[in-house]
Amino acid sequence: MMGKTHIAVGIAAAYLITHPQTAPEFIIATVGGSIGGVMADIDVKIDTSNKYAAKASTDALYGEILAAAISVGALAGDYFTGGNILQGAVANLTRFIIGAVLFIVFTIIGERSKHRDKTHSLLAMLLFSASVYLMESRIGFAYLIGYGSHLLVDTFNKSPIRMLYPLKKGVVYTSLLMCENAPQEWQNVPAENIRRFQKSVRYKRADNQNAALEKFKLTFQKQRLWNEVLRIEKSSDAQLGRSFEFSLPKEWSRQEQIDYTTEYIQKTFVDKGMCADWSIHDKGDGNPHVHLLVTLRPFNSDHSWGNKEIKDWEFVRDENGNIVVDESHPDWWQDKKNPDRHGIRIPVLDENGVQKVGTRNRKQWKRVLTDATGWNNPKNCELWRSEWANVCNAHLKTENHIDHRSYARQGKLEIPTIHEGADARKIDEKFQNGQTSSTSWKVEENQIIKRQNALLDKIQISFGKVSSALTQWKERLRDIRRKPGSHSHDGDNDKPDRGTAESYGRDGTGIAGTGQAAPVFSGAEPEFKKLKQRIIQAAKSFARYRRTALTDRATENQNRTVGKRESAMAGINAEAEQREQLIAETEQRIADLKQQIEKAREIDERMQKLRERRAGGRTSADDRTDAGRTGSERPDNPGTKQAAKRIADLEREIEQRKQSREYRSIADKIKANRGTIDQRDRQQEKSRRRSRGMEI
After folding, report:
1. Judgement on whether residues 530 and 652 belong to the same structural domain of the protein
2. How, if at all, do strands 367-371 and 309-313 pair?
3. Angstrom distance (rounded) from CA 154 to CA 163
4. 544 or 249: which carries more pLDDT confidence?
5. Distance between CA atoms of 153 and 3, rounded to whole angstroms?
6. Which helix (H) or strand (E) holds 112?
7. Given the DSSP bridges, would you call strands 342-344 and 276-281 parallel, antiparallel or unpaired?
8. Of 1, 346, 449, 561, which residue has the fewest beta carbons closer than 10 angstroms?
9. CA angle 521, 525, 526 (to 5 degrees)
10. Model confidence over 648-693: pLDDT tens digits?
11. Is the previous residue joined to 166 through a cis bond, with omega within 30 degrees of 0?
């Protein structure tokens, strides 16, 4: 909405409602309606980043200037024509000054707030109108009308306004869970309060009066709880509670979110003695989450507040942390009610090394505070996160499972994305619609991270396929070794000096030899290793750039410097370009390796068919069979030679893989098992010798 439009609507609304008849009344309606019509846009910042933002901010500024000019001109005309509007305003100077100061303060607060937030609310309308009313009551009413027209018109825009600021929006469910020892009367709402609420306008105008009454009771119980917490804490800097915020799976329905969250909070916090005040927050932007607030002070069995910490004497301890027992020491102390509490107390000394003396001439001793409940242990955070992950995974499909641990702790190479937030997504949405010239740096960085992770996933999938293929080919190689006479029809013609046996890397007995190198898979595994190392190095390099950028952005929040962040983003963009080249190169290498795999697979199939034909006694011209010859010598089959070379190459690749990290642990286990078997064999041999009288 344009600024001049708001001025026109504000003046028209003031004329329509006030019905001015005289010139002073027209001037009052014009001044109040024009200023009130544009005052809500005082939060618009001058933005020259793109054409759209510059036009909107400039229009708002021109509207404010136009409203001020209209108001000054109208009041000046009234003054020179003998009107009494200004004279009536300054008649009560104290009231006028108070209103002017309040108006200036509200203007400063509104100017520093986010657009369509604080100033576009009913609270801001009432506060601004009240300040103007103190200066001039007649203008204050017209100002209220103009301000209200602005809010009414802005409700028809696409961008929402916070009409009910500061009330939270998006709260879809709220609850209060009390522990077992909490006073029962805190959960009971007095009948007098219920009757008073039922007489209120909010109750009478509610669509569902029963729901409104239940909400009132719950609000009353929450207020009662936290008022009691505030009353029991005597220290001015005391911690009243502990707050949590955790996300909800989008796969759950609303009722499932309520049920599973209630189960988790009840088991994790309430059953241990805490009171939990929690709500589900969902704005419809795909980010449902829970706000949780729990108490820190336990309840005693008599329903009274317990101690968060226990103050006790500090005793002298040895190097192992145990209390030193020496009843002859002059500072020895023992509790009469609890004799097990004893030890050598440590005195509190002043700057001269003399023990301090408190009130009533009592000597002062060092005291320590110990956690009475164990709720302040930092390890609880990890425990609570793991329990929430277990609850989610118990009610989610396997592919949607979550893990509370970081990628580094899980042993993954993926780079974690950063939290974007609603504001960053709104900026990106405007960028996609062409309203801004640049997107959010958070969204841009996450896009780079996602491309990097996609490349890593592709490499890992390719590794898995190659590993599976090598395993299958290894099993087939073992089958060939178990059949030494499988290279001819009956095995009688397979001699030690034949080229076929040598090409397979075995002698006449079928025992594997050295074999010969083949070009089919030569260097496949090293190529994959090199690619993997390059990807890992790229991930580390990008993570280094990301840490630099994050550090610079933290500095930006402190001193508002922009140069460092731009420098970091330039480095990230350069790294992204390198990653794009790496992705293209890697995809081409993967395609080449897949072609090699397909060629090897075709060779393997031809070899299998050849063995089947020879086993069945079938011959063909393509096989170049020697069925017609009776001698021991026959020409070698080219397909057989290639297959033999491939098997030898696979043997070498398998040995290389055995030296890699993924087989190292398995090899160590196999070695340990073989050592155990050898030890058992030696023990059995000693037993046999002993039974034969041969033990030395």
Report:
1. yes
2. antiparallel
3. 10
4. 249
5. 12
6. helix 93-112
7. unpaired
8. 561
9. 115
10. 666 566 566 555 554 455 556 556 666 666 676 677 677 666 554 4
11. yes
| Residue ranges of E strands in 314-412 | 332-334, 342-344, 367-371
52 pLDDT exceeds 80?
Answer: no
Contact of 516 with 648, CB cutoff 8 Å = yes
Kindly state whether residue 303 falls inside one of the protein's structural domains.
no
Residue pair 11/30 in contact by the 8 Å Cβ criterion: yes
Q: Are residues 144 and 37 in the same domain?
A: yes
Residue 370 amino acid letter: T
Q: Report the pLDDT value the prediction gives residue 223, as an integer from 0 to 100.
A: 93
Burial class (CB in 10 A: 0-12, 13-18, 19+), 52: middle
For residues 577-592, give the mean pLDDT: 63
What does the angle CA 351 – CA 357 – CA 361 come to, to the nearest 5 degrees? 160
C-alpha dihedral (189, 195, 200, 206), degrees to nearest 10:
70
Q: Which two tokens stand for residue 145?
A: 């009308």
Residue 286 Ramachandran class (φ > 0 left, ψ -120 to 50 alpha, else beta): left
Indicate the burial class of 640 (C-beta count within 10 angstroms; 0-12, 13-18, 19 or more): buried
Residue 79 structural domain: 3-154
Q: How far apart are CA 501 and CA 497, in angstroms?
A: 8
What are the φ/ψ torsions at residue 417 (nearest 5 degrees)? -80, 160
Do 102 and 201 have their domain in common?
no
> What is the DSSP pairing of strand 276-281 with strand 289-295?
antiparallel
Strand partners, 121: none
DSSP labels, 197-251: HHTSHHHHT-SSHHHHHHHHHHHHHHHHHHHHHHHH--STT---EEEEEEE--TT
- Listed in sequence order, the residues at least 6 apart from 278 whose beta carbon sits closer than 8 Å to its beta carbon are 174, 175, 176, 177, 261, 265, 290, 291, 292, 293
Q: State whether 127 and 216 are in the same domain.
A: no
Q: Counting Cβ atoms within 10 Å, is residue 622 exposed (0-12), middle (13-18) or buried (19+)?
A: exposed
pLDDT of 495 strictly over 70: no
Identify the pLDDT of residue 26.
Answer: 92
Q: If we measure between CA atoms, which residue out of 204, 56, 200, 43 comes closest to residue 115?
A: 43
DSSP per residue, 4-50: HHHHHHHHHHHHHHH---SHHHHHHHHHHHHHHHHHGGGGPPP--SS
Rounded to whole angstroms, the Cα distance separating 355 from 348 reads: 5
Q: Which two tokens stand for residue 205?
A: 């105008």
Q: Which pLDDT value is given to residue 32?
A: 92
Contact of 347 with 355, CB cutoff 8 Å: yes
Q: Are 456 and 596 in the same domain?
A: yes
Q: From 127, 3, 1, select the one nearest 64 (Cα to Cα).
A: 3
d(CA 552, CA 534): 27
DSSP 365: B
C-alpha to C-alpha distances, 283 to 159, 163, 169, 253, 549, nearest whole angstrom? 14, 15, 7, 15, 30
Whether residues 60 and 104 share a domain: the answer is yes
Whether the pTM exceeds 0.85: the reply is: no
Which residues partner with 299 through β-bridges? Answer: 305
What separation, in Å, do the N-terminal and C-terminal C-alpha atoms of the chain show? 106
How far out from the chain centre does Cα 507 lie?
61
> Does residue 258 lie within any of the structural domains?
yes
Q: Which residues of 468-477 are buried (b: 16+ CB within 10 A; e: fewer)?
A: ebbeebeeeb
Q: Residue 593, SS3?
A: helix
| Tens-digit pLDDT profile for residues 475-488 | 776 776 665 544 44
Task: State the virtual CA torsion across 8, 11, 17, 19 in degrees, nearest 10.
Answer: -120
Q: What torsion do the CA atoms of 436, 440, 443, 444 make, to the nearest 10 degrees?
A: 90
**For the chain, how many structural domains are there in total?**
4
- pLDDT of the residue at 544: 58
* Length of the chain (residues): 696
